[in-house]
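Quick check before the chapter quiz. The format below is the same one you will see on the exam, so make sure you can read both the input and the output lines.
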Amino acid sequence: MFQSFAPVDFARAVGAQPAAAGACDTVIALIAREKRIPIRLLIHPSRCRLGTARARQLAMYLSHVILGRSLTEIGDAFGRDRTTVSHACAVIEDLRDDPDFDAEVSGFERSLEAWRDGENGNAH
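Here is the expected output.
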């Protein structure tokens, strides 16, 4: 079973105010915190272990699906090619067939949507 998580103070997590932090940086900080993986490993040029690679793929997926970043922008943020980002999105989409994984991803999506909407002054 996947753990739920408390809201993240993204500004503190990335060391900047939300408006100053890049959207991909926000996602990277969230996933690093929740998966307990150092940020440096999420953006490291090597593939790393499966857990780290999967967390990186998840961060890429969320950057694209929730924040609407282009595959090229995400690739630049992670030091990877846009085709790698496309593959990561496909892998995560396939993994969402697992209800527990899907619930975890949905939690991340809600958290990022709240941050995004607050960032744009659309908080309810």
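If your answer matched, good. Residues 99-119 form the longest helix (21 residues).
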